[in-house]
Amino acid sequence: MHGTYASEQPTDFQAATAAAAAAAAAAAASASVSSMRTTAEQRDMEREQNSNDPDEWSMSECGFADSEVQRAIRGGSAAEDITQYPIHGWVDVTDEFHDACSELLPGELAQDMLFGLFEAMSAIEIMDPKMDVGMGFDKFDLPPPSFEAAVAMGAIKLDGLEPAELIGIFDALFACLVSWLEGNSMDQVLFTCLYLHAPSQIQDKALRVFCTAVRNLIVVIKNIIILAAVNEEEDFQLYGNSALLAAEKAQPSTIAGLLKEVEDELVRKCKQLTSTENQNLMAVVHRLRFMRHLFQAIYQVELMPGADSAEEAVNEIYKNLNVASELLPLIKRTIDRGTQPVEGSEAPNPMGFSPRIHDRSQPPTFPRSIKIRERPASYQFLEEMVARFKYACKVIRYKDYYSALNFFIEYSRKSGHCILSRSVLQSLFNSSILLAHGKQSMKQFLRHSVQAFNSPPVLNPKHPVANDPKVQQHLETFFRYCINMKTFNQFIRLCGFNRARQRDKLAHLIENFDPLQVDAARLDSLMNQMANDRAMEGNESHATALKHSTHFSTWVLYNCFRAMLIYLMSGFELELYAVHEFLYIYWYPYEFLIGFLVSALTRTENILLAQEEYAEHQSRIQVNGGNSGSGGKNRKAAKPKKNKKQQRPYRQEIVYYHALLSLCGGMYKAMGALTKDGRVRLPMSKFDNEEIRYNRRFAPFVPLTSPPPVSYAEFKNIRDHMMLNSVEELYSFAAKHFDQARNVLESIQNPEQEILDLLQIARTNFVVMNVLARGHQKEVKRQPEFDFSKHSYFPIIKLK
What we know:
Structural class: mainly alpha
């Protein structure tokens, strides 16, 4: 019987199951009673052995079938009726399933030893339209038509389109483009437009050229994002149906000319039409013109590395962006003139779109529920994107690392959600550095940046010490090490990632600053040693230039401190911290980090002032040693005095950090007071270990030698000492800190919006702390609300 079954090998699954069941039933019937007893004894022994193995479970433990079915399976009697398919272990659990579900709250998951959180996150929910592609179809539905099938059926027009139809298709394509930039699959948004599948077969010239421009724009955008390399999988779907893009070769250089030609033809046609028809056709012209200028601006970003001058290239980009921004209000006013989406339909336009044409070609993990942006919201997105592009063009003004990094941090805070905007900024910056400094662009850029930050004499080509070959050898070694470590490159580059990824990458970046700190300190030490050697040789000018040199270590430490502060405070923006953790998160910047930043900037200013005084001294010596002391020479010698105020370039930033210091101190004391007052909900002690949480929050700072890591024991001692004060005193201390922050912020002239927001936070929290210090709501121990709507790092404390 077994041999016959093996030789037949039924191809049908049901027939194979029935044959196997029949073979098992025949074997069971022909077995003798003694063999059955022996088999049962062996099965009992095996069951006992398996029960001792912790990694093995019985069928009843797994819960795959009830006890009667298990006995039937073990006894072999389950195969008596081979017409039933399949009967092995199948039980109707519908009622039990609904009863179990009724015990779960929304959002809860049932955990099993074979189905945990990992399996739940990667599971595909069958019969859920968002995940199961088959649920979007009815068995009587016809397959979605391809471009050729739609043309044969007359579902789409290739020629003789009315202006309203062109406006509807153009608006829908812009909506699809925006949906693609927001992270959706290219196949599920852009290539649902059948016209994009074969633009060369379209006879209507305006539609053909527009669709060709969209296809080329896809290629250009992909190239910019790939080269910038600041995208993550949640930001952007780079790859789609590449066969469609390869079907017609991209020629971006010809697109602007084609669009201009169509515009001119339609403008001439407008002159022969009535007023209403003229307005409809001009709406088509405006969309074609907007596409032309937007395409040219983005395409010029891709071509910028080969330009002769960064300023000229950016000026040309800026001109196109200006025209595009002027056209958008005109386009938004004529959205209603085009064909509109059918209510209840997934297609963004009645003609030319097949939303489900690519569903069967997608892997099962793709998000199935795609909602394309509405047309007004899409044009609003494009208007904001053009404004971000114009703002990004300002990056070429910043010629040193300090100012460029400030610009990138500010740009990321304002425009971090748009992957194309972030990629354009990276491309513009890299191209401008390449055009400005040539082949060894980053090394020259860093040399120039250190010189702009604290002006070391050894980097001044006019200073005699700059010609010393030994000094230049040490400098070359240091900057080559900076380039090899890629720390400074990565700091600017990670500002192009989305805000959540920035924090992850900052943790690794901070670790890389430690070897740079060591190398910078070694370089400064060598310079001091060489100063002593030059002094012994009698070379006073060289010795003075090299003596007490802390230029390079200060520069490295300042950038390290900034990375640490951004990492720590970004946790508030990303809502990673629990309220009871605020105390030590604000404590670290207050006690250490912001003080280090102020110290580094103050030291830099002192270095610049000392150099200025030395330059004035040398100038006076030269004047006094001259044969004639004309008024003109005296005026030239007095020039450095006029620049004294300019030698404090970091005064405003120092004032800003003093304000942050007071705000962090106020929040630290306020959280201590609220905790001691019983107004902060604390985790249960048996589920909590504050030391572990503390160590994890500050783990990226541990590898650094400067600043040295602060252990949990040190923090606990400082906190316990603070908590010796009464609750009223702690509230009063917090109020004083907020009052100090208010005074500092009010002293800033011409404040930006961030300063005004921080000023409102300081004023409000000052009032709240004073109210609590006087015993307001003393009997009510409710946790206050921490409102971060005004600022990402500092909340307004609101009493409930």
